[in-house]
Amino acid sequence: MLSQYKKRLARDLAQLGFHVPADQIVARDENSYVSLNLHYESRFPPVASLRTEIKVELNARPPVLPTLLLPIRSMLSTLTRESASDVSIECIGVEETLAEKVLSFLRRTAEARAGRNRAEYDDRLVRHLYDIRAIARGRDDLQLPHEHYAAMVAGDAAQYRNQYPEFEQDPMGQMRVVMDALHSDHEAFERDYLQFVDELVFGESVPFAEARSVFIELAERLMSGLTPSPKSEAALQRMADNAREIGLDY
Predict the structure, then answer these.
(1) pLDDT averaged over the chain?
(2) To 5 degrees, how large is the angle CA 213–CA 214–CA 217?
(3) What are phi and psi of 25, to 5 degrees?
(4) Which of 18, 193, 226, 230 has its CA 20 to 30 A from that of 86?
(5) 26: which strand partners?
């Protein structure tokens, strides 16, 4: 079913006027992950910080929390104060989005540090730090899905077991490697973050230290419900020591 959906999607996008090169359609994990590059004619000269194509990524998995039907509105229509469109889509909730962003940043960064990534490390994964801080600031009533985070971690471990077996064996330990690096080896993250904010953020510019602090606090709260393996006990203690140094109640 996912294979047929992938083919139908590429066909429909081509009919809309995009050029969808077959060699730029990537499918992995039995089509549960699909990536397509949509090429189009631009009316403006290319900008180095923006891709020359629209990159569409799809992940197939069941939501863990109730979904919401929300309207789609572009930044342009907001700026020009156009009326909202009638188009709405089923969306995962804010809490699940936050948990996914924490997991995505930690797993994918740990995967790269373990030398298991199939492509170059995406230095714009730091967008998740910016987004999580934005979510935390905009939602005073934020309820973290602690009881569901373990299931999300287990789902990623199963989905990527062939590509990244270390994560299946010790997800807590692998995520701790990245959390530790955010404390003790954050220069590379800060460089990527500053470049991301400078080139792609429209609106408020948030200092890296603030975004990092919010991410660490919320990630720790989500991870507190996970059961560490023996391999990650030492990393857990090291993380606790680092957290106390910056004043986190951990």
Answers:
(1) 87
(2) 85
(3) -100, 115
(4) 18
(5) 35
φ and ψ of 51, to 5 deg: -65, 150
Dist. CA 18–CA 53, nearest whole Å: 10
CB 20 within 8 A of CB 10: yes
Residues 133 and 46: their CA atoms lie apart, in Å, by 30
Residue type at position 211: A
State the Cα–Cα distance between residues 155 and 101, nearest whole angstrom. Answer: 14
pLDDT exceeds 60 at position 87: yes
> In this predicted structure, what is the pLDDT of residue 250?
41
Q: Is 35 left (phi over 0), alpha (psi -120 to 50) or beta?
A: beta
- Structure tokens given for 249: 């109640």
Closest to 175 in 3D by CA, of 124, 136, 204, 215: 215
The amino acid sitting at 142 is L
- Exposed/middle/buried for 127, CB within 10 Å: 0-12, 13-18, 19+? buried
174 close to 226: Cβ distance less than 8 angstroms: no
| pLDDT score recorded for residue 229 | 61
- In the β-sheet with 33-39, what is the strand arrangement from edge to edge? 25-28, 33-39, 53-59
Pairwise CA distance, residues 238 & 250, whole Å: 12
d(CA 127, CA 48): 18
Question: Which sign does the torsion angle of CA 199, 200, 205, 211 carry?
Answer: negative
Query: The tokens 């469109």 sit on which residue?
Result: 85
Q: At how many degrees (to 10) do helices 127-138 and 187-200 cross?
A: 70
CB 116 within 8 A of CB 95: no
Q: What is the pTM of this model?
A: 0.80
